[in-house]
Amino acid sequence: MFVVPPYLEYLIEISIDDFLSRVNNVLQSDLSYTWNYTNGNHFISLAKSNGEYGFDTGYYMIVHASANEFKNFLYPNSGVWYEKDIKIEYDDNSARYLRYITGNSAIRFYNIAKNLVQFNAERNRYFIKSVLSSEFLEKEILSIQHYGMPNNHTVCIGAHWKPTMYTLLTSPGKPIYLVNPNRDTFVGSPHGFGLSLANPKVVFDSDSITIGKKKFKSGSIEIGTDAINRCSSTDAKEHVSKVLDICPGKIVGKSHQIVSISKDGTRIWQ
Fold first, then answer.
1. 10 Å Cβ neighbour count for 256?
2. What is the number of helices (H) and of strands (E) in the chain?
3. What does DSSP assign to residue 97?
4. pLDDT digits over 110-143, tens only?
5. Strand locations in the chain, DSSP E?
6. Residue-wise pLDDT tens digits, 173-215
């Protein structure tokens, strides 16, 4: 089974060594796409389901990444094609601001961004099929995107906008859950636990921002581990409950990570 943003696919049993060899071969020799599975919170995992929650017992390949090929066209970096059309609205009371574009630039942006969903699905599908081939790959279980524009006035980042089964990503080495959302109350679902502030107090001043107990004057904000509370080895179950309290749904599957490849390197979990 394989998952990409999240993309999930069922596969025949494969050894860890064979799996890692196949993954590394594609990452190093196949230049069809700009692979970024070891950037940010992206990853490649081999997982196993023991049949919990009625989910099929077996091995699954799960991948998570975004369309790196679109980065130079859509990110508001210096020199991007729509830079001169960016408008900024300031909030004098909080010193915050909002950047946006309108008119022909906005239309062109949407016409590019709306291709992200299909492109990313095909990108991850191609990667998994290149790694596993028909020798191990049995069927695709799920492909759901968490980054894109569902329409010309909506942007989703780190959230699913379709009321369908989704993967709830947790943390390295921890179980990955499949959830069916409550369609009657559905407004969106998260693709993972994300981050939470240990001290959620945020204060904006004219020349700085204070998050928790840390004050930042300018430049990029690196909050650090003392202000951010990531999912730890003991609170995964608690985080799942908190997510489902906010975004009601039913767990319908659970897979345990065997090996993962990410920015932190290759880790064997069991």
1. 17
2. 5, 20
3. E
4. 999 999 899 999 999 999 999 998 888 888 888 8
5. 2-3, 7-11, 43-49, 58-64, 87-91, 96-100, 137-143, 147-151, 154-157, 159-160, 166-168, 176-181, 189-190, 196-197, 202-204, 209-211, 214-216, 228-229, 249-262, 265-268
6. 889 999 999 999 888 888 887 666 666 677 777 777 777 777 7
Residue whose tokens read 């993967």: 167
Place of tokens 């016409």: 111
Going by C-alpha positions, the residue among 33, 269, 244 that lies closest to residue 128 is 33
Q: How far is CA 28 from the centre of its chain?
A: 23
Place of tokens 């020799």: 29
| Residue of 45, 54, 15, 8 lying closest to 136 (CA atoms) | 15
For 101, the token pair is 């574009």
Residue 80 C-beta-side C-alpha neighbours within 13 Å: 17
Give the type of residue at 262.
S
Confidence of residue 222 (pLDDT cuts 50, 70, 90): low
Tokens of 70: 């679109």
With tokens 């020798």, the residue in question is 135
| pLDDT attached to residue 225 | 52
Distances (CA, A) of 259 to 24, 47, 48: 13, 7, 10
CA distance 24 to 21: 5
- Furthest-apart CA pair in the chain: how many Å? 61
242/257 Cα distance (integer angstroms): 22
Alpha carbons 74 and 212: distance in angstroms, whole number = 32
